[in-house]
Automatic annotation (TrEMBL):
Residues 310-525 form the Peptidase M24 domain. This is Aminopeptidase P family protein. GO terms for cellular component: cytoplasm. It comes from the Bacteria. The keyword Protease applies. GO terms for molecular function: metal ion binding; metalloaminopeptidase activity. Residues 7-139 form the Creatinase N-terminal domain. It comes from Stakelama tenebrarum. Keywords: Aminopeptidase, Hydrolase, Metal-binding, Protease. The keyword DNA repair does not apply. Belongs to the peptidase M24B family. It holds the Pfam family Creatinase_N.
């Protein structure tokens, strides 16, 4: 099966052998993760799609790829349109599409370990309109044809010290026990990998870019817990760290454990626990309680130690990014640099400073038309040379034990056009507006989203993604529940009230299809604001990311005095923070970039 067309045919043959008329292939794992291990990359193996979110549906005579607005260009580059039709979500959902395209009376398969129960209900209802049914499979048909499918990682767990975490695992479990008591529940299932890592103060290397370990956990009302993980992955140090209150069990003991709660109230998160978990609780006679995982909000509210660690990670990461941007400015116009070699050079600068555990996601290294693909992933086949005449966009981040970083900057290769400057300045104005926003405690991110869009809207422009996502503390670079996004944009949907201690990205952008892309991203911390005469508790943002914003792309005539003052103050802080860590030509370059506008 050397081609994706061959793989599609093989899957259709496999479905026929399993008496199925279709199958849904999501890009996730049994933990509903965004980033997944190699063993769970079924969608990429089947279709060639390299984005971080998407799904495919395969029927006997047709197949479809479902992606949101971030990937409408990328999917066309990576997935053959003669094999798959392209469907944009949320304009059309998978369930709605199945309700229109599934064969009358057909049997559509799904893996209950890769979907939520809400999705199962929605798809079942849509298929019923055609007299079709949704059928759970016990063996995933993609796995049956994926001959060289990788095995799950066997990397060891490592301890995240209480000093770095700012709170012991025992204290976190005690708070979860109190949470269970208020809900008169006996236990809670934790299936999200970052929730487990946070709750037990452990980290792992099972998923690229995200320091988590493949595991499940059940925390009980007395504060004890069962951690289901392959025994060979648990070192003596981890065993000692977990203590007697945490029982380590093999991963395959998780399913039987779920069936052992007859008559007990067991909480599980309907957004993060797959349908199979609820199915097994039902089979065992438990009384499932569909509520949000108690670790979700707790880990989003960073404690003082986590905030201090994040600032330290940003200070180090900023030096690497500055050295890289200087290198791009000086070397790219000479020729010989590609998107792929540029990404490798940025990694080299980060690694040279020491302490880098991993990148926090696959570096988005996009020149020209590839910069217009918001979540572009460069490959050997797609890598373009950086040539004079367009813009280079780089969105990247690092995983450090102290914290997780995420930053986007844009550099012109040669002289930018007036249009590029106009668009860049409008993006900057939106970025500044959001950074300076003052709002009541409890405001949801969707209410702030338009702050960043207005300068673009004024010119009849917009961007096809949310404006901000939450960020973890040496965990996932995309962390909920907080976000800054309107419901109709990727990353949107129900919005979480913003609270002091939450870290978010501020990343408006502009993308001209086939030509260039712009995005300016810093991370910010929600903090309390003392407003004289205020009648409500108020919040604002403290900037956490400090790297120069490219001045040659700014049209100063579009900037207000207040915006120029913000930029000058920001650059003064960049120089103050990074200058003492730099010398020679690097320092001279930094000072020039940070001079008052």
């Amino acid at each position: 099966m050397s081609t994706y067309a061959d793989r599609l045919k093989a899957l259709r043959d496999q479905l026929k052998s399993q008496q199925l008329d279709g199958f849904v292939v999501p890009l996730t794992d049994e933990h509903m993760s965004e980033y997944v291990g190699d063993y769970a990359q079924r969608l990429a193996w089947l279709t060639g799609f390299q984005g971080s979110q998407g799904s495919a549906v395969v029927l006997p005579q047709e197949a479809a790829m479902f992606v949101d607005g971030r990937y409408t260009l990328q999917v066309r580059e990576q997935v053959d349109g003669s094999d798959y039709q392209y469907v944009k979500i949320p304009d059309t959902s998978i369930a709605d599409w199945l309700g229109e395209h599934a064969p009358e009376g057909g049997r559509i398969g799904y893996d209950p370990w890769l979907h939520t129960r809400a999705w199962v209900v929605e798809a079942t209802k849509a298929l019923a309109e055609r007299g079709a049914e949704l059928v759970p499979v016990t063996a995933n048909p993609v796995d049956a044809i994926w001959a060289d499918k990788p095995q799950p990682s066997d990397a060891k767990l490592v301890v995240q010290s209480d000093e770095a975490a700012g709170q012991s695992s025992a204290a976190k479990r005690a708070e979860i026990a109190e949470w269970l008591e208020t809900r008169k529940a006996d236990a809670v299932v934790l299936s999200a990998l970052d929730s487990i890592a946070w709750t037990f103060n452990v980290r792992g290397k099972d998923v690229i870019h995200t320091p988590v370990a493949l595991a499940y956990a059940i925390v009980h009302a007395d504060g004890t817990a069962d951690l289901f993980v392959e025994p060979d992955k648990v070192t003596d140090d981890v065993t000692k760290h977990l203590g007697n209150a945490v029982r380590v069990q093999p991963r395959d003991a998780f399913a039987p454990a779920l069936r052992s709660f007859s008559g007990k109230r067991v909480a599980a998160d309907p957004e993060r626990a797959v349908a199979a978990i609820f199915d097994m609780l039902d089979e065992g006679g438990a009384k499932p309680l569909a509520v949000r995982d108690p670790a979700i909000l707790a880990k989003a509210l960073k404690n003082p130690r986590e905030i201090a660690g994040h600032r330290a990670a940003q200070a180090q990461d900023g030096v690497a990014v500055v050295r890289f941007l200087r290198w791009i400015e000086e070397e790219a116009p000479k020729g010989g640099i590609t998107e792929l070699s540029a990404a490798a050079k940025l990694l080299e600068f980060r690694e040279a400073l020491g302490g880098l555990k991993d990148t926090s996601f696959e570096t988005i290294s996009g020149y020209g038309k590839h910069g217009a693909i918001p979540h572009y992933r460069v490959t050997e086949e797609s890598s373009l040379p950086l040539e004079v005449g367009s813009l280079y966009l780089v969105d990247s981040g690092g995983q450090y034990e102290a914290g997780t970083t995420d930053i986007t900057r844009v550099m012109p290769i040669g002289e930018p056009t007036a249009e590029m400057k106009d668009r860049f300045t409008r993006v900057l104005k939106g970025h500044i507006a959001l950074d300076m926003a003052i709002f009541p405690d409890g405001t949801v991110g969707g209410q702030l989203d338009s702050f960043a869009r207005k300068p673009l809207w004024d010119a009849g422009l917009d961007y096809p993604h949310g404006t901000g996502h939450g960020v973890g503390s040496y965990l996932s670079v995309h962390e909920g529940p907080q976000r800054i996004a309107a419901p109709n944009y990727p990353g949107g949907g129900p919005n979480e009230p913003l609270r002091a201690g939450m870290i978010l990205s501020n990343e408006p952008g502009y993308y001209k299809a086939g030509e260039y892309g712009i995005r300016i991203e810093n991370l910010v911390l929600a903090v309390a604001k003392d407003i004289p005469g205020a009648e409500l508790p108020m919040l604002g943002f403290e900037t956490l990311t400090f790297v120069p914003i490219e001045r040659t792309l700014i049209d100063k005539s579009l900037m207000t005095a207040e915006e120029i003052a913000w930029l000058d103050a920001y650059h003064a802080k960049v120089e103050e923070l990074l200058g003492p860590q730099m010398d020679g030509e690097d320092l001279a370059w930094l000072k020039a970039k940070c001079a008052p506008l």
